Amino acid sequence: MTRNAMCSMFNIEIPVFGFSHCRNVVAEITRAGGLGCLGTAYYTPEELEWELKWIDEQVGDKPYGVNLLLPQKYETVGEASLDPARLSQEHVKWQRDLLEKAGIPELPASEREELMNAELGRLHMTPEFAGELLDVALRHPSVKLVVSALGSPPRPILDRLHAHGIMVGAMTGKVEHALKHKEAGLDLVIAQGTEAAGHTGVVSSMVLWPEVVDAVAPMPVLAAGGIGRGRQMAAAFALGAQGIWCGSIWHGTRESDLTDEMKQLLFKAKSGDAVQTRSKTGKPGRMLRSKYTEAWLQPDAPKPLPMPWQSVLNVEARLRIDRARALEYMTCPVGQIVGTINQESSVRQVIYDILDEFADTMEGLGERSGLV
After folding, report:
1. 191-195 contacts: CB < 8 A, separation 24 or more?
2. Which strand (E) or helix (H) includes residue 354?
3. What residues does 16 pair with on adjacent strands?
4. 20 to 30 Å CA-CA from 116: which of 10, 85, 179, 296?
5. Which pLDDT tens digit goes with each residue over 275-325?
6. 237 with 178, same domain?
7. For residue 248, what is the domain's CATH number?
């Protein structure tokens, strides 16, 4: 695929881009000829340095990317604003009653403060913190792509990245946002349909991809949302994309750092079990359905808090649920492709399967359609 625009842009073998918070997944995607992109939302600068150094050692001079929170505006300022004591007591009581009724034990008093502080320390959305993470990324020459998860990055950051020879992309669920990315001078856009995991819009991939491709041409577009098979990759190219961006499909791999319990829940899930919910962050995000996500839909449930307070509220609940291994209440971000994640595989095997089915699909398309 040497004539492919994305392969030429990054000097990679296949236009398969993979997002993960797990360094093992990112490294293996890159080693297999694609481009892995590390999600950094919950890393401190020190932790990110360790992760990128490890990836460097695994991939040699192959390029990879990082996903940073680089919005034009920030909703929180400093750590003090995330003090749990400022949470709505109505919400705190409702959530504690929910966990108590479920028989999920409280955190040990001797460990609670340390556990809570460690998790709360990962919830950052300030210009200063983003700048520290960016400084870390720029110290690693093999980082050739930075993706902004919350809109186009501020102009000074964009100029700084371009000065280092780094390509810059951004996620979009709307044509209007894609046009803003193009106007801002980004190098590529990732059109993410509502089928995807995490924060998404409401437009499906089948509709969104060609709309974005037409709107920002000749700017290259990566297709995201509901891709985990070769036929879906073929559809992305048929609709004008120059590559694919996959996230959820790596959850079921041996390289994924999800717990065995969480993987088993994913293997049993159907596509319809990936639901949009405000229960995690306060904004609509696609998660695995659980008794916890369902509880927020009940008549007695309070309205989810705005971002980032819903995330702060969830810290203790998640720690309690995970510690108790309360499977019916466990959840994680996952897209509707979860219905095809039925057993453990490897990152490399997933990529091989996608490419094999893609080749077969392209070769047999004319015959199957009966129109060529």
Report:
1. 191/221, 191/222, 191/223, 191/224, 191/225, 191/241, 192/224, 192/225, 192/245, 193/224, 193/225, 193/226, 194/225, 194/276, 194/286, 195/225, 195/226, 195/274, 195/286, 195/335, 195/336, 195/337
2. helix 347-369
3. 244
4. 296
5. 999 999 898 999 999 999 999 999 999 999 988 899 999 999 999 999 999
6. yes
7. 3.20.20.70
